[in-house]
Amino acid sequence: xxxxxxxxxxxxxxxxxxxxxxxxxxxxxxxxxxxxxxxxxxxxxxxxxxxxxxxxxxxxxxxxxxxxxxxxxxxxxxxxxxxxxxxxxxxxxxxxxxxxxxxxxxxxxxxxxxxxxxxxxxxxxxxxxxxxxxxxxxxxxxxxxxxxxxxxxxxxxxxxxxxxxxxxxxxxxxxxxxxxxxxxx
Length: 185
Prior knowledge:
6-stranded parallel beta sheet, alpha/beta, 34% helix
C-alpha cells in the first residue's frame, strides 16, 4: 500500500516539484516571506534537472524550488507555484494538496493526458504522488532519480526539521487519501 509508483523519466510529460521546508533569513517575518530555499529545496531542484534531462517538458515547482531552478540551472521556463497572499500581506500556507490543485487548474483539460513526474522529499514522496493523482494526473516518481532524504534542522518550518517531527504530520495528511480511496496511476 505504501509503495510509490515509478516510471522511466523519459515517459514523463511534465514535472511537478513539491518544496520541503525553507530558510527564513534573520529579521524576516516568516508570515510574510517564503524564505530562502535551503539545502533540501536545492537538492529537490537538482532532482528536477536530473528527471527532466535535456527534454523541454513543462516544470511546475513550488517557489523555493523554482527560484533555484532559475538561478542555478538557468531554467527560464519553470512555472512557479506560489503561496497566495491574504489581504493583510501575510502568506496563506500552500499545502501539498493546494499546490497540486493549482497545477491542475493551470493544466486544465491537459491533465487527463499528463504523465506527471513527482519530485518530493523522500518521506513526502508517497503522499505527494498520491495527492497529485487525486487531482487527475497519472502521477509517478521518476525511476532512478534519488530524492533527498536529509532533514534540515534549520528549516523555517518546524515539522520539516527532523523525521520524528515530520512523519506524524505526513501520516495525518494521508488519512483523506485513504478514506477517499488511493488514486492509482
